[in-house]
Amino acid sequence: MRPSHCATAIALALILGGAPAGSAQVLGLPVYNSGVPTGLGVYGDVAFPNSAAGDGHTFAATGRLGVSRIGITATLASFNPSGPDNTITTVGATGNYKLLGGPLIPFSATLQGGIGYGKLGSGVTSVKTWHFPIGLGLGITIPNPALAIKPWIAPRIDLSHTSVGGSSDTDSNFGISAGVELNFLTGFGVHAAYDRIFASGDDPGIFAIGAHYGFRIPGL
Asked: Which residues are CB-contacts of 43 (< 8 A; sequence separation ≥ 6)?
């Protein structure tokens, strides 16, 4: 491997290994747990990790599907940390179960489990990271004539596994994310979220903003 590529792998190992939970379910993106959607939703985000989470920025696209009390999401993201000029493509997914909430109940409680994966490089110096957030999301919908306001908060246990060549490290930390959605009657909406993980040393944090559109599916 060329020296520049080796330096890149070492730098990323420090980013991901030195802050083992430096990102949530997907590298450089908060864990979203605002509840089970009704129908199909398409979300776009831009996120800004702090220095403990790798700095730089992340662009992401997410699809969400909700059927009754069950929801699933799938995310594709491009994380560009500071330092070496290398963009990391990462993927993630969650499964969600609504414990409480419905059309006539503004409060919701959602159990969520997720998985995220990212890799940089190849061969013995490749860096691989897995993330497994497990938590509970609590939200409330505040109706208004033109839009619905939905603040939410989601504490969780955040498990991470990072491997560099033949070495690996597994960590578990407490994490929390919170945000707000503004949903208009047309199906369009905007959202913002902040994610923080309480690890030894500097706490990784990520702020994200984005927009989304919801499609109602007849019968759901």
From this structure: 32, 60, 61, 62, 63, 64, 191, 210, 211, 212
pTM value surpassing 0.90: no
- What structural domains does the chain harbor? 3-215 (2.40.160.20)
Cβ count within 10 A of residue 72? 15
Q: Are strands 142-143 and 127-140 parallel, antiparallel or unpaired?
A: unpaired
Token readout for 159 is: 């498990």
Per-residue pLDDT of the chain (220 residues), as tens digits, is 333 333 344 344 444 443 333 444 688 899 999 999 889 999 999 999 998 888 899 999 999 999 999 999 999 999 988 766 678 889 999 999 999 987 778 999 999 999 999 887 766 677 888 999 999 999 999 988 889 999 999 999 999 998 887 788 888 999 999 999 999 999 999 999 999 999 877 899 999 999 999 998 776 5
| 77: CB partners within 8 A, 6+ apart | 26, 27, 28, 29, 58, 59, 60, 61, 89, 90, 91, 92
- Within the chain, strands assigned E span 39-49, 57-67, 70-80, 88-102, 105-120, 127-140, 142-143, 147-164, 167-184, 188-198, 205-215
